Records
---
Amino acid sequence: MMKTMPPIATSYWDIFCSVVDNYGDIGVTWRLARQLANEYQLPVRLWIDDLASFQRLCSQLDTTLSEQTIDNVLIGHWNPNFPANVHPGQVVIEAFACELPLSLRHSMQQMERPPVWLNLEYLTAESWIDGCHGLPSRQDQLTKFFFFPGFSVKSGGLLCENTLFATRQQWQQQSEQRQQFCRHRHLLPPQPNELFISLFSYENAALPALLKRWQSHPTPVRCLIPAGRTLNSLSSLLPADVCQAGGCWQQGALTVEVLPMTDQTAYDQLLWSCDFNIVRGEDSFVRAQWAGRPFLWHIYPQDDDAHHTKLDAFLDWLDAPPSMRAFHRHWNGIATRDAGWPGWATVDGWRDCVQTARARLLAMPDLATQLQRFVQEKR
Ligand code: TRH
């Protein structure tokens, strides 16, 4: 039996998240919920329909509980028996167009002063979102607003915690940072001039060729792979017992180590510890930009190839150098011509572009700040 949330909780910010696949839906909403709760001291309730996926990013989560508080966020298991007596708070955010429980919508309709209702959209650098960000849509007697994260000043911005850069700097300034990182994660000690690469991608036919190139790299290469979908494309190269957390494999200049999935803080630390990051989806893609190191984005593939347009929009916004553009297009299946690994000297040269873009982003208000202002305006 589901324990019910407090029936009258008029001040909550309710965030609803339905996990479609992977970790991006929960990754984004969990990050947002924690930022609103801890930096803005807002009472946040996060409703999640898939606690098992959530637990992969948050090991302290108890999947048997219908409600629990972690990091000042009240987490509710959103199952088909959503309690009819749960009343919406002052703000209701549906993430990525998930459908709110009918009973909650009904309660919203009955309210004299309904909550500010928002749909938090997927991230894209396409310019059409500038005209749609913040637009209202009438739904019965209620109004829902579209909130678009993005890269332009007219968009809702990107998630970025207030303390992120200070924390990263502190992390990177530790003496023998890489030795400590390896020791702490039970990884092999770093070698002199070893290039560290994190690899968090979807399945990709280009993966074995990439790893083979690194086997003959002039300096040692460490490829750190969080256990998951990446490994599905490496079964022709890596023995089966390597393809699990703790797996380790060496061939030529390349050492592969497979990592267990960690929480988001430790994932950030992985990005900060690497020279080059291969990231995917939405949230890890943003975190790689905050890390400020050269990166490769494996965009979430869509059936109608809409991701091709999204990728090009981002590369245009980034003002990506030709080699970065070519590698991205090849990796994401847009260009068939071989444009694989361009060599470390070239990839290292992307750093300026990545850091210039990051400075542009930092000049804009972050997503949580914009969301808060938006809600204040609409109330
Ligand atoms: O998991 P994803 O592929 O999620 C995707 C995208 O969000 C996509 O846009 C969406 O349509 C689809 O899901 C449904 O990639 P993403 O967005 O990078 O999310 C991964 C999350 O997992 C991110 O918050 C970082 C986190 N993470 C950890 O916390 N620990 C880890 O060890 C790793 C590897 C990731």
Note: The two ends are 35 Å apart (CA to CA).
---
Amino acid sequence: MRDPFGRPITYLRLAVTDRCNLRCRYCVPEECGPAGGAVLSGEALVEIARQAVLCGVKKIRLTGGEPLVRRDIAALCRSIADLEGLEELCITTNGTALETLAGPLREAGVDRLNVSLDSLRPQRYAALTRGGRLEDVLEGLRAAERAGFTGTKLNVVLLRGVNQDEIPDFVDLTRRFPLEVRFIELMPIGEGARGDFLPAGEVLQQCPDLVPAGSGGVARRYRLPGAPGLTGLITPMSCRFCADCDRIRVTADGMLKPCLHSEREIDLRGLTGEALRQAIASGAAAKPERHYLAETGHSGAGRTMNRIGG
Ligand code: SAM
């Protein structure tokens, strides 16, 4: 499956819920009632994954909302991991439920985890997430390691005046653990449009010992000399990577988004088999060449991040 600009589309981000047990202040609105559409059933999610793989998708990331709040998450992962032709199944999670779920997810065939963590200070973490406990995430990371997960990535959204003083602490983790710490620029989507943006170049200014170490997906990678871990910079604002975009997204209520920053959505609800494949292919065909975040200062996403799937 290629889009009109010749980009191979091989990566699906599939939101499995729009609910989250945290309320990160740049992501989830404070007053957050139930979202508009009904969340897809496990069966419908597996059918979307199956048809996407038949269309050429090689990698699927489950996201949300918080994917681990779904009670059937392990069974769902097992059904998706078993799809012939799928090369990688990943989950993006806030990590708070990994202590109990890391083992079952690993057994179900999940290959890799991205864990979102924006502060290493308990009080700050609680304030940022409106009530989260840092210790739950740290325990979850330990459980992931015990369960056999490798290549875990930590996602850190850079927030001016909020966590910029923790950049060296996060980078320092890569000296001690074989993790990739990925600093992500805040995008002006929903609550993220309120002005805490900090360019990722700040990381290189604060940590001048980092040396380039190639690229990994959309991240530019760096390493501290001798460190087992990596530091990644993801720069949707200061240096867009649309030319390498290989992804489509499906929201938890069954809408395919060809581009994160476009309002365009294709309704997949109720479709199966050939009709679903055609709809997925039409999503790839509808990908715009690029986004205009930096020029316009706002995203056309039309939904908050927790209702798209980050
Ligand atoms: N609940 C899961 C988690 O916490 O990772 C998955 C969903 S969350 C929406 C996925 C990722 O999107 C998180 O790493 C979060 O920090 C990131 N995110 C949310 N809003 C963002 C924004 N405006 N700009 C950049 N990243 C954002």
Note: The chain has a mean pLDDT of 94.
---
Amino acid sequence: MPPARAAVLCGLGGWLPSRVVTNEELSRRLDTSDAWIRTRTGITQRYAAGPGEATSDLAVAAGRRALRSAGAPEADAVVVATTTPDRSCPATAPLVADRLGLAGACAFDVGAVCTGFVYGLASAAGLIAAGVAERVLLIGADTYSTIVDPEDRANAIIFGDGAGAVVLRAGSPTEPGAVGHFDLGSDGAGEELIMVAAGGSRRRPAPGPAERPDGYFAMRGKEVYRHAVTRMTASARASLALAGLKTDDIDRLVPHQANARILRSVAQELELPPDRLVSNVATVGNTGAASVPLALADAAARDGLRPGERVLLTAFGGGLTWGSCLLTWPALGPTIHPHDGGGTPAP
Ligand code: UT7
């Protein structure tokens, strides 16, 4: 049974740092090429945080845009989904809340790697359904450039930095913007497929450069690729089944932007016409927990999401984790394109 109080999307914003990293730039310092990257991933460029620029800086900028689009700088809960928090302790969300003038709000981080934003939506829906919050600011933000080894050609070409945010208010499950029909899952047996080995309580930080490579992000790309396709497809189907819908009822599929080939395969498996697939991976790369809200902001700013359209979100990431949910696209205030504004420091 859907909760009496649903979380209703009422604001959206995205932010990208100013530095663009092109395939040509990567090809100059790594054994790779623009042709290889485009063919294998569909990515042409990605963005990188500048020196000293942290995840919270991007999160604050995206959060401010989302609050503006929601018409008021108010929220009584702030949730940040991230794999690259400013520090391992404390969480990044309280700092973000404070910088946005929301000090005192309930604030915590969600760690579900690239599925973090969908898990965050479910957390926000839970806070609202339980009466804990009336208005939640949910931000997906990551700076993978801070954990990917710049010499690791397999990962350096894929990942980019960015942040995307939504505001969710308490409302009715039947109104446009209400998020629901969540399917969330995990498989910890796949922990090693996507991991930063050192730095946590299992392998404790040790000083000295010899330990440094374990502190980098590592991914078993081919296996992850297969899981990404099968898990996102199955999870999307599970959400549809919960809602009693078929693929044909979906106007827009917005998957985690992992790799253009993965997205095409998921759409194919679901027998969804390619023009219903929303993708911005070509211009931003894989931005982790930011990827779904950044794809939403990109599409909304280009009129690629229209009020009344039925939208299916699906994501997959380290853990392993996966998740999907549905909403009918609401009428929102203007969405600034995430690419607009890069070049100025995050406020
Ligand atoms: O966000 C969380 C979820 N993440 C994902 O969904 C990412 C999933 N995985 C992928 O997107 C792909 O597996 C990659 C893009 C990471 C790799 O593409 P692939 O088509 O699976 O390539 P591969 O790993 O099978 O490598 C094929 C070849 C290898 O050479 P050999 O062993 O065949 O001689 C690699 O060493 O390509 C080589 N290679 C590269 N060559 C040029 C790997 N990276 C590069 C590179 N440039 N950047």
Note: The chain is about 30% helix and 25% strand.
---
Amino acid sequence: MEAVVLAAGKSKRMKSKISKIFHNICGKPIIFYVVKALENFKVHIVSNPDMKEALEKMFPEAKVHIQQEQKGTADALSKAINHIEFEAFAVVNGDMPLIKGEDIETGLNILKLKGLDCLIFTSTLDNPYGYGRIVRENGKITIVEEKEATNQIKQIKEVNSGIYIFRTEAALRALPKIEKSSETGEYYLTEIIKYMEKVDTLEINSENMLGVNTRKQLSEVRRIMQRRIIDRFEYVTFIDPENTYVNYDVEIGEDTVIYPNVHLKDKTKIGRECIIENGNIIENSVIRDNVHIKPYCVIEESIICDNCEIGPFAHLRPMTELKSCVRIGNFVETKKVKIGKRTKASHLTYLGDAELGEDVNVGCGTITCNYDGYQKNKTIVGDRVFIGSDVQLVAPVKIGNDALIAAGTTVTKDVEPFALAISRVPQVNKPNWVKKYRETMEKKLREKNKS
Ligand code: UD1
Ligand code: CA
């Protein structure tokens, strides 16, 4: 089977610097979904010169043909039609990411069974504005574009979906006969049926043919695509699927529960029986089984092993690797760090360019001072180390197994196993100091007020 995707248009109505076919829906450009639906087809794409390279890179299997000037959909098809090898082929507009490959395969079969020249996919829309209308008169079908429609024709709710199946020979003969529109100067592919004998229509579900011409349509189509993606996960609980954002490539395991306003991006993989609470943004990360992510964390390019507990309000930056049962609490930031089993950093901590062993306790306010203004330096912490609150680890530095770092210590030298490291100004208590201080200050004030 063979198909031509028309994708060279100027996308004026999108009011965007980039072509509409490259606008993102659930982590992929619109054109990705169109070509994906045609995975059983030999695909031709008609492109404008600017996008050719990007399209060839994205779809190495497809043949990209160039339409120099955007003179309409008929002109676009003329750039690919001489390369068609099969006796019948489909034409699909490149701005319809919700199309179904099965619909098009059915269309091809109907065309052959009925011996048609052209089969037009149609749909009935409550609001047909913008679409070409299907006009039926004395058994003859014509398509009238919105711009050229009379008020009477505008009332018609049956529209051209922008998917067509052609008998190659009939299309080759009819295409050059199309004249340009006196209204817009464009060559409309919809005119082709005027020069064909056997034309029929096939009604498809209107959802599958929605086109993206404007930002409003982009958001409507995104919503439907998001629902389709979420519906794949029959074994996952989404508390509020309408307000959950799961990209195309994401994987999720059985019995995981996803709360509202969660964004799962790129190739993120979530394991089984996880709980991902509200507002989490997880990008390109692997979360293994039974992980609990409390609200409002940002997790980027990280690996989180089984039974970890993260958040609320944690920021796991790229190359964070947590072994099982690690606990990362609120206002903790990590970056390029490996953390061993059962280690806890429960509050207000920065761990960057570091390796921490198993069963380490990282006290509140611990900071790895990894940057000296020129380069990043490494901190290595052994197993069972206890780090008290408000500790600075000035890298490069190594803490041996079972060491204890007293609260408030600034560690600048390596610490050997089982040692206590403490760096504090010794504490001095001065009895009744406050009383004397207040007396002197109040006396000063009184003298000042008198003068
Ligand atoms: C088109 C149909 C309309 C149909 C609607 C369905 C025509 C004349 N009209 O209108 O009947 O109801 O689709 O969505 O075909 N393109 C090119 N080169 C060009 C012009 C367009 O490659 O010179 C491509 C565009 O990139 C787009 C596709 O063809 O992917 C359709 O063009 P678009 O401008 O979106 O057509 P519609 O006005 O939506
Ligand atoms: Ca369109």
Note: The mean pLDDT is 97.
